[in-house]
Structures are given as structure tokens and as C-alpha cells.
Amino acid sequence: MITSALVLCVTVLCFKTYRRRQGLPPGPLCLPFVGTLLSAGLSQHPTDIAKLRKKYGDVYTLMFGSKVIIMVTGSEAMREIIIKHADSVTDRPPVSQMLQLNNGCGIIATSGELWKQQRSFALKTLRSFGFGKRCLEHQILQEVEIFMGEITKRGGEPFYAKEVLSPAFANIICSIVFGKRFEYNDERLNIVLRVINLDFAKINIVLRMIGMTLPWLRHLPGDITGFKQRMRYETEIKFFINSEIQRHKDSFDENEIRDYIDAFMLEQIREKNNANSTFSDQQLLASVRDLFIAGSETTATTISWALLYLMANPSVQNRMRKEIDDVIGKTGKPSLEHKSKLPYCEVVITEVQRLGNIAPFAVPHHVSDDVIWRDFLIPKGASLMLNLDSVLMDPITFPSPEKFDPERFLNEEGKCVGQNSFIPFGLGRRVCLGESLARMELFLFIISLVQNFEILKENDQSELSFEEIRGGTRSPVPFKVRFKPRN
Ligand code: HEM
């Protein structure tokens, strides 16, 4: 009797689950309760994704419990969905962990009018502080000088590059949002950087998606989806940011806007009679937190990949150095104006970003209205995962995609080309808000390093590892590097 009831229940559930899949893009076997977890596994590895893509097509359906996740692979499908249906796929999932950690505020995880207002305020303000302009270039170059001073102190001995990369890039975003930089050994900064590092390196993005779609899991004993640990990390980060906000409140002068926090507080004053204003104190904390987190670890991780590829390819380094010497000289200061005159250096940076691909799944999007894509339904309420790997590692656009080959971006006239499929910053309305800052930082740091140092392996015998850690970002396993000053 019990067995028959059980069989009946399972059959009904299977049927319902199957019905739900009607019209959706195809996908692996979907079972009640667990969805496609058993058939598709938890792997985020490109080869596993490629297998699923080969079997089910560019757009396929995964299910966590009853939650529909649509995986989008390949440049064509991604552009068709993200650009053509932008009105329906620009939001973020309403139950994302990040949204909850930020009390529904911020930029990265918010949606609708709140997101629109806050993203546009952030872009406008950051532009006024020099995104893409000379004044910010000057600030970045100052940090480059300090960074190179730190490297020189190591006297050519091997050390973990991340030790100096993390505070250097955090300092650039700190200068923009807090109006100040920190010493590399500042205890408060280092606690926060350790926390961000741990958070980025250790999150399993699939477990996070599961936590996002099945939020009740966080109330179970233990910490299956890592939510409780993230809450602890967030407390540290917010404590740090709150102390900076307090410092600004104590010294605010609306006639002298020093940085992003001041600009936000000025906007709060301007909006004080607007009952629908989104410029709350919580929003200030959350957007500063988003800029700080998104702006520090991402670029530091990209430079880590650059160091690895440059150590492995001394001839590439030599060719870059020759180009830099010809254009800037051995002692001249690099500037963004040199960019168009350093095409080889530019394609090396492009290739590092293609292979480094530090955000292989971008940030999940939410489908706010049914989308008909080709003959399939991408249903309202689904989450959309953009697999940037599938574009950046596409063997048709980039033959032998795993090979480090900067020249693939160089045309016969020696110009940088082929950027259409180069989407490490994502695409569409949610494209990375810090793209122009990141591009400035990558250019100025990498050119300065190659101009001044030979970038060498720990020792001649050491083997380089290109193994990756897939967390919030995709980063290389920690490695040591030597910087030998040029004569
Ligand atoms: C090499 C460095 C970087 C890479 C590869 C990168 C990549 C990305 C990607 C893939 C997204 C998600 C796009 C999507 O949702 O479809 C994103 C979002 C974002 N990035 Fe970056 N990023 C980098 C550096 C930065 C920097 C320096 C900042 C600092 C201002 C920043 C701020 C943001 C913000 C605020 C968002 C959320 C935008 C939104 O939801 O509207 N990023 N980034």
C-alpha cells in the first residue's frame, strides 16, 4: 500500500516536472526534488559545459529543485538573448544571496528602477572622477610607483605576487570611493582583503546558485551553501566601510566633494524632498561595498594570470619590452596615450584576459518576462547563466583556444583586431560598470612592470602551474614570482 502510494507520488511529480519542461530548451534528465543535479552534476569545468552544449545545444535547461536555470553558451545565442531581449533579461534573481546580504540594496544584485538609478549615478560619478581620463591615470600611476617600490624591496627574491597585487588594486578603488589609500601593511585593509580573497576563491558558484534557488537550505544545520560563512565575511567588510562612511559624515563639506561617498551624500541632500529617493544610508553602504569588492579582486586576479603567462613566455615579454623601449623609452612614464602605439602589448593584455577569463559565468541574470528564443520558451522567473568561457574559448573564433597566442588578435597591418568575441566584461545593459577603469589599470600596471622588470619563475627548475581555482572569480593557484630589475 505504502509502496504504491510512493510510486504514485513519484510518478505524479515526475510528470509535473516533465510538463514544466515543455517548451523549455532541452536539458539533462530532470528528477523530482533534485532537478538535473544528478544528471548534470555540479561541475563548472569548461569541458563538462562543452559536453552538455554539444548534446543539448547552445541554450539548455538545468533545474535545481523546481527552479529553472537557463544556461546560455556561444556568442550568437548570448547576443540574441541578452541584447535583443534586454528588457526581459536585465534584472538579477530576486532571491540572490548577495541581495540579501546587502539588504536589497547596491548595484550588482539589484534590479528595476533602484538598479537603474544607482548604476547611472555610479557611472556618472565615476566618470566625473576620471574613468578613462588623465586625472585618474595620474592616480593609478602613483599607485604603480608605490607598487614597484614594494617589488624592488623584495630584492629579486621570489614572493607571492598576490601579497602586493591585492592592496595595490584595492587602493585605487579606495582612492576613488574613500578619497584615500592605505599602507600595504595596514591591518584593517589586510583583514578585509583576506576576507575578499577567501570569499572569491572559495565560493562554489554552483552551490551558491543552489543556495539562491533553495534559500531554506541556509536554515539547516551546518553551512551547505556557504551562506553563514559569507554573512561573517560581510560583517567584516561592512565594518570597514562603515568606519569610512562615518569619517566622511564627520567632515562633509558640500562645497568640496572629495570622492564617491561625498558625491553620494550630496545626492542625498539634493533628493531629501523626494519620497521615492533611492539614496538611503543603506544604499550608500551597499553600493560602496559593491564597488570595493568588484573593483579590487578582479583586476588583481587578471594581473596574476598576466604574470603567469609572461613567466611562461619570455619571448613575449622581450617583444613587449622592445616595443615599449621604442615608444616610451627605458625611463619614460607610460600613459594611456601610448596605447595605440603599443599594439603588441595591447594584444598580449587581450590574450591574457581571454585565457584568464576571471568571471566565467558573469553574474546570474533573471528573466522578468517570457522570452521566445528561436522555438523555445525562456520562462519568466528563470535564472540565466551566461557562460563567457564558451565564447572566449570558442575553437572556431579562437583556433587552439587553450594556447597562449597574442598574435591571434593582431592583423597584417599590426593592429589589434577580433574584439567582437572578446567579452570578459560581459555584454548588454549589465556589462561591467568598471570596464574602463579595469582597462586603464591593466594597461598601466602591465606596461610599467614589463618596462622595469624581467618577470621570472621562482627558480629555473620550477614548473609553472596553470591550475585554476573556480570561485566567485577564476584565479590561478597561488604562485611565487621574481622581479629582476632591468639594468
Ligand atoms: C579585469 C577586471 C574585471 C572584469 C573581467 C570584470 C567583469 C565583470 C563581469 C563579467 C560582470 C557581470 C556582467 C553581467 O552581469 O552580465 C561585471 C559586473 C560588474 N563589475 Fe566588473 N569586472 C572587472 C573589473 C571591475 C572593476 C575595476 C570595477 C569597479 C568599479 C567593477 C565593477 C563592476 C560592477 C559594479 C558590476 C555590476 C554591474 C551591474 O550589475 O550593473 N568591475 N564585471
UniProtKB/TrEMBL annotation:
GO process annotations (BP): organic acid metabolic process; xenobiotic metabolic process
Amino acids binding heme: C432
Subcellular location(s) of the protein: Membrane
One GO location term (cellular component): cytoplasm
GO MF annotation list: heme binding; iron ion binding; oxidoreductase activity, acting on paired donors, with incorporation or reduction of molecular oxygen, reduced flavin or flavoprotein as one donor, and incorporation of one atom of oxygen; steroid hydroxylase activity
InterPro entries: Cyt_P450, Cyt_P450_CS, Cyt_P450_E_grp-I, Cyt_P450_sf, Cytochrome_P450_fam2
Cofactors: heme
Signal peptide region: 1-23
Keywords linked to the UniProt accession: Heme, Iron, Membrane, Metal-binding, Monooxygenase, Oxidoreductase, Signal
Family membership: Belongs to the cytochrome P450 family.
Record protein name field: Cytochrome P450
The species this protein was found in: Pinctada imbricata
Taxonomic classification: Eukaryota, Metazoa, Spiralia, Lophotrochozoa, Mollusca
